[in-house]
Amino acid sequence: MSLSSFLEEKDVKERFKEEFPLPNFKAQIKREMLVQPLTDNRQLVGIAFDYLLRFYIKYLNPHATEQNQWIAEIAVARLKQSKFHHLYKQACVNLNQAKENYTAFQNTGQFTDDLLKSTLLLGKLDPFVRGRAIDKNLQIDENLQFVDNSDVQDLRRLIELVEPTIFQSEKPIILNPTWGKDSLLVGGADGDLIIGDLLVDIKTIKDFTLVRKTFNQLMGYYTLSMLNQAREPSVLEVLRLGIYFSRFGFLYEFNVSEVVNPKTWTQFVEWFFKRALSNRPVT
């Protein structure tokens, strides 16, 4: 199980809908898509852009903390003992090249084709960890060497659209937050980034809209962050939630206070904790 699969449980979806009203994502916030996808590899490009944007944020903010391994690193470690073990050596090559390109980027800030290709190859590794248990539509591509140049071009246009000032801050920044032991309640959860008191989810999608599934994911992250803060007071307190719509170059934000009812919050957290425990396999 994972947070994503936990949130797909019928009773969980119903409880989240009952507890958290959708924020006022006003219709007048209309944005035109500025970067059209160039291939049907939208899922892969989305994963690759998550890596690329986090790389860029680290370059813009050297003090940013990378809290967790890349998912691709975990994938490589698992490949060796999996039914896909025949891909292990190539996955190691791709990972090592990606690390070299990442290091070079942190020194130069240049979005080279090699860097962009590496993020796509990292994106091909992620599904070996996330798998269909998390997303039934998540596709596993065993051709770990091939990169479509159109996807490279797509990534370049997406990263060129990023306004650096949106993601620059002197406040603490956490890349790929995982919320310690508390995320194990749901079998693991990893967000995209936290900037100060703002938790951001990156979405490389064609529709500029806030759907319930995306909103529930944010509220799931928020709940885990609050459980983590109760255990470890030094953890950053999240007061705002946001979604970066990469194809629109727009960061949408809202205050937690708009959607969390303090009168029912304690009861909800108790329910969340017990419900998550009930889904954990007996060992």
How would you characterize this protein structure?
The chain is α/β, with parallel strands linked by helices and 283 residues long. It has one domain. Strands 1-2-3-4-5-6 form a six-stranded mixed β-sheet, sandwiched between helices. Strand 3 and strand 4 form a beta hairpin. It is globular, with a radius of gyration of 19 Å.
Notable traits:
alpha/beta; 283 residues; 11 helices; 6-stranded mixed β-sheet; globular
Number of strands: 6
Largest sheet report: 6 strands, mixed
Shape: globular
What is the element string, with H for helices and E for strands? HHHEHHHHHHEEEHEEH
Rg, nearest Å: 19 Å
The helix/strand class is alpha/beta
Number of H/I helices: 11
* Beta-strand share of residues: 5-15%
Mean pLDDT score: 90
Question: Span between N and C termini?
Answer: 14 Å
Compute the number of structural domains: 1
Helical fraction: 40-55%
Order of strands, widest sheet? 1-2-3-4-5-6
Oligomer: single chain
| Uncertain ranges | 132-136
